[in-house]
Amino acid sequence: FHFPCAILASNAYYLIPHPEIINSVELPKFVLCLGRWMHNVLFFLLSTSRNFSLHREAFVVNETPVFMNKPPPHVFKLMSLPSMIIKLTLGLLWCIIHLAISLLSLCSHLIFNLECSLISSGLLWKYRNLQLGRLKYLAIVVDSREAKNTVKINQLLYWLKTLGVKYVCLYDIDGVLKKLFAPGMNGSRDNNPGDYLDASANIKALDCCQKQMTIECISGSDGKEGIAKAANLLCSSYLNGDSYTQENVKSEENVKSEENVENEPVFTETDMASALKSIGCAGPEPDLLLVYGPARCHLGFPTWRLRYTEIMHMGPLKSMKYGAIVKAFHNYSKKHQNYGK
Amino acid sequence: MLDSLISHDPKVLTEKKPDEIIASGVVESLQNFLRKCIIAVLSYGPMPKHIAFIMDGNRRYAKSRSIKQGTGHSVGFAALMASLIYCYEMGVKYITVYAFSIDNFKRDPSEVKTLMELMEEKINELLENKNVINKVNCKINFWGILDMLPEPVRLAAQKLMASTAENTGLVFSVCMPYNSTSEIANAVTELCKERRDMMQGQQASGRNGRPANGGACSDISVSDLDRHMYTAGCPDPDIVIRTSGETRLSNFLLWQTTFSHLQNPDPLWPEFSWRHLVWAILQYQRAYPYIEQNKDLAKKQL
């Protein structure tokens, strides 16, 4: 009897208003999205009612409880006509709630856009003098599909340069940005070859308008896989018995291991950090992380660098605004960290 | 059910007239019915299976209400128990909370002592009032370097873990004292020990003339480390909620939150209530298609 539930569930995702609706600030595009969504709702209602009438005859009302205990309230057991109507009503209510939330967020998005244009034009006085003293390292997480938009990425980097950011770390989970900014591939795009200097494997220096900015590009393989490689390094050196004792004698936190050095491996956070450094996955810890994407997720940013980073969600890359970055920096300057104290 | 867990504040217990009690009973049952309706509507969409909470804001709450910090933490504990019940009603099977960080040992010793005493008191209360745990069939885990805790707290925690180990319902994990980076370092240590034992086993079998398998010689993979994390067996968190509007993760579940929806509502933790939870789930439902897309893409690449 789970089959009709499965149909409902599988069709329900058509009903979730596409996140594009909230970003379609132009009225015709919004109307088009809304029309498409309403068409999906109608299609869904027709198809589910058709499915239910088909399966109602072949279906036996099942009374035996699935669980021995009282099941949680969200499990539907009976499949008679009243319960179908109830389910459709619930579905409608759910759609209405989400539509209302989408409209609300559209309104707040419009207000935010207005604020950003005011900030860009310099009318809001409190954003005029940005104190970037505490912001030494900035990181940007981009959705991999949006990262292919090199025009937007370059514009973002240009804005950050004009704001005076000294070090930017670009991250995307699939490694698209790493490929775009790789050395030797700078002639065929919008980039000016003279702008990029080859500093190290991941790091480039962007020199323009007499403001030096270092760019680092990392990908998902520097996150979890980097930690796995570091673990491999530590493990193999322990099992081979050579440089393990050196690392433990150096780390101050690990007094016990001097007695157990022949028997038990004990790896501390400092051991992992130095192992990460030796395989080239270490870098400065960002103070601020800007997430460009439909949702606020860090998408696997390297663990050792994300510990105390402030994470701010900026929205999709294609609707990025200069004023939003200024606002984010301003909010960051207001933050106060205890570091656990 | 909650009264046994919430510390009795004398101001709360007042005399009530009989018709007031009836009226409050009617209002309460109406509220319960309304809650169940809203949960039924919400459940139509995707519901999270695992929610993680960073319970931030107890001290600020105490300061704003001009009460002692210890009382602020007690109110925070009451809010935790309430949230646990609400999550269970919503069908969330795994709940993880960040109770105490290894960095928090840097705090004022008297505050650390108060916190430890509070934890010991609450764990002992849970050990005595088994009916609460049995009602939700709760399995309680304590994740972290338990050796850093004072002896009575550690013993109580281990006792509670052992007594609820067989339960199959809600899984409630308390991270104390916990650091994501030390969890990873611990996983590497465990993995190394496992490999060393495997190698020693291979050497023993090699002496017997049997062929040795190449298992210990392969590189360490991400799934090897996953097996040795404290969270092995639990799915990754769907939502991470940090109250009081702070935007950082403070070294909490950094390995497991690759595709988790990070949320930071403004209310302080003692103010976190049912409507904030509903709002959190609504936000998750809006972000769900994007997150699932990313998860599928990541799986395809493996």
UniProtKB/TrEMBL annotation, chain A:
Q: Which Gene3D superfamilies match?
A: Decaprenyl diphosphate synthase-like
Q: Which GO terms describe its molecular function?
A: ditrans,polycis-polyprenyl diphosphate synthase [(2E,6E)-farnesyl diphosphate specific] activity
Task: Spell out the reaction equation it catalyses.
Answer: n isopentenyl diphosphate + (2E,6E)-farnesyl diphosphate = a di-trans,poly-cis-polyprenyl diphosphate + n diphosphate
**Lineage top rank: taxon:** Eukaryota
Alphabetically sorted, this entry's keywords are: Endoplasmic reticulum, Magnesium, Membrane, Transferase, Transmembrane, Transmembrane helix
Q: In which pathway does it act?
A: Protein modification; protein glycosylation
Major enzyme class: transferase
GO CC term, one of those recorded:
dehydrodolichyl diphosphate synthase complex
Q: Which cofactor does it need?
A: Mg(2+)
**Known EC number:** 2.5.1.87
Query: InterPro entries, per this entry?
Result: Nus1/NgBR (IPR038887), UPP_synth-like_sf (IPR036424)
Tell me where it resides.
Answer: Endoplasmic reticulum membrane
Family, similarity comment: Belongs to the UPP synthase family.
Listed name of the protein: ditrans,polycis-polyprenyl diphosphate synthase [(2E,6E)-farnesyldiphosphate specific]
Species: Aegilops tauschii subsp. strangulata
UniProtKB/TrEMBL annotation, chain B:
The UniProt keyword set, sorted, is: Transferase
Gene Ontology biological process: polyprenol biosynthetic process
The name of this protein is Alkyl transferase
Q: Which GO terms describe its cellular component?
A: endoplasmic reticulum
One GO molecular function term? ditrans,polycis-polyprenyl diphosphate synthase [(2E,6E)-farnesyl diphosphate specific] activity
Classification via SUPFAM superfamilies:
Undecaprenyl diphosphate synthase
Q: What InterPro entries does this protein map onto?
A: UPP_synth-like, UPP_synth-like_CS, UPP_synth-like_sf
- Please state the Enzyme Commission number of this protein: 2.5.1.-
Say if the entry is tagged with keyword Oxidoreductase: no
Similarity field: Belongs to the UPP synthase family.
Organism listed in the record: Aegilops tauschii subsp. strangulata (Goatgrass)
- In its keyword annotation, does this UniProt entry include Transferase? yes
The record, for PANTHER family, names:
DEHYDRODOLICHYL DIPHOSPHATE SYNTHASE COMPLEX SUBUNIT DHDDS, DEHYDRODOLICHYL DIPHOSPHATE SYNTHASE FAMILY MEMBER
Which PROSITE patterns does the annotation name? UPP_SYNTHASE
